[in-house]
């Protein structure tokens, strides 16, 4: 082990005193004054301007007192220099580490800055995918997710524009008819012609009212948040449909009949959504079905099926995909309609994983709401 530098060499001093207080001997450089008060053991004492830590040994047999002192200034200097040797490099290292971290973070966030600049430079109407190159592999999922979101937003905006345009067109037709028939009724001299015009006004008003109601229902389904864990009784929903649409069926000389073999069924769906889906199917059957009664059947065949059956010709297979779209009707449809009933029904049951099916029967046509086993239950009520 190499020797310590001179400035760290220990400054030990020794004094030998007789028990009667006489100085017998001392080491070189040791003060003449006693290093300690004479009490055996360790003590600390200032001698002049220096502080000493002294060990005193008393030997009564030889009649001497030996004092060995250590100058504490050497210790303090060593501790101070040691702290400076540790702290200064540590502070310098921390500063260097902070600079490196700042440079690294700045460089790492530079791609995010480019993405932010690309977004800030875009027009609010632009929903095209972002084009930021190069992109680090860590940010690629973020850019892809943003591009996917922008594409979906663009599709939603285009669908909204198409919806508004179709709604405006559909509203324009009955309003124009209302105006025309009102002019005919106002100028008609023949009472029969006037009565006919008034009947057409009533029919146009009914059609407009139905269109507005279905548009509101459609908008409500798009923004409606389903209640988690909601269960609705099938029997209660069918009873409400009979009450709501019984008068409409009666006016056309029909009635709504039900045939449910298991009335104690519940489906995991909001009550208003189920009534809306069934109500639109029943209304379509009453307005566009054959002359016979409208039947509501429920059956279990693995899945739960709610069937709305009428005696009409139904929807041709080639038009089934077409009528699922908004404002679309079968090519052979003759009666007036809005083309919203089936899309509303499909949207209303979507939260319960329900599907809308079509079946051609021997003496009629059925529109079926089908729910998987996980979305319905048999109760003991």
From TrEMBL:
GO molecular function: ATP binding; phosphorelay sensor kinase activity
Chief location: membrane
Group of enzyme by EC: transferase
Protein's name in the database: histidine kinase
Family matches, as InterPro entries: HAMP_dom, HATPase_C_sf, HATPase_dom, His_kinase_dom, HisK_dim/P_dom, HisK_dim/P_sf, Sig_transdc_His_kin-like_C, TCS_sensor_his_kinase
Gene3D superfamilies from the UniProt entry: 1.10.287.130, Histidine kinase-like ATPase, C-terminal domain
Residue stretches making up the Histidine kinase domain: 166-375
Source organism of the structure: Sphingomonas jeddahensis
Residue stretches spanning the membrane: 82-105
Designated gene of the protein: qseC
EC number: 2.7.13.3
Catalytic activity: ATP + protein L-histidine = ADP + protein N-phospho-L-histidine
PANTHER family the UniProt entry points to: SENSOR HISTIDINE KINASE YKOH, SENSOR PROTEIN QSEC
């Amino acid at each position: 082990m190499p020797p310590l530098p001179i400035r760290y060499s220990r400054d030990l001093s020794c004094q030998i005193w007789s028990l009667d207080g006489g100085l017998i001997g001392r080491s070189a450089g040791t003060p003449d004054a006693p290093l300690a008060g004479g009490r055996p053991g360790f003590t600390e004492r200032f001698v002049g301007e220096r502080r000493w830590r002294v060990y005193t040994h008393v030997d009564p047999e030889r009649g001497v007192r030996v004092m060995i002192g250590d100058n504490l200034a050497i210790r303090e200097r060593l501790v101070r220099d040691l702290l400076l040797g540790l702290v200064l490099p540590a502070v310098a290292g921390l500063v260097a580490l902070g600079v490196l971290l700042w440079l690294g973070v700045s460089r790492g966030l530079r791609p995010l800055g480019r993405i932010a600049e690309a977004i800030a430079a875009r027009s609010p109407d632009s929903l095209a995918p972002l084009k930021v190159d190069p992109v680090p592999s860590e940010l690629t999922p973020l850019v892809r997710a943003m591009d996917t979101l922008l594409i979906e937003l663009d599709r939603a905006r285009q669908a909204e524009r198409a919806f508004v345009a179709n709604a405006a067109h559909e509203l324009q037709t009955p309003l124009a008819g209302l105006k025309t028939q009102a002019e005919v009724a106002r100028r008609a001299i023949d009472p029969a012609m006037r009565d006919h015009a008034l009947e057409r006004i009533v029919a146009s008003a009914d059609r407009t009212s139905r269109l507005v109601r279905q548009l509101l229902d459609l908008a409500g389904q798009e923004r409606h948040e389903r209640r988690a864990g909601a269960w609705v009784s099938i029997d209660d929903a069918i009873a409400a449909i009979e009450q709501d649409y019984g008068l409409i069926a009666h006016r056309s000389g029909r009635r709504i009949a039900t045939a449910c073999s298991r009335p104690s069924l519940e489906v995991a769906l909001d009550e208003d959504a189920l009534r809306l889906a069934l109500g639109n199917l029943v209304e379509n059957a009453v307005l566009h079905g054959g002359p016979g009664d409208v039947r509501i059947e429920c059956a279990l065949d693995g899945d739960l099926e709610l069937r709305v059956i009428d005696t009409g010709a139904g929807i041709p297979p080639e038009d089934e995909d077409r009528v699922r779209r908004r404002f679309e009707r079968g090519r052979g449809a003759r009666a007036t309609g809005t083309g919203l009933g089936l899309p509303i029904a499909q949207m209303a049951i979507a939260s319960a994983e329900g599907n809308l099916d079509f079946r051609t029967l021997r003496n009629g046509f059925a529109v079926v709401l089908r729910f998987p086993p996980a979305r319905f239950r048999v109760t003991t009520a």
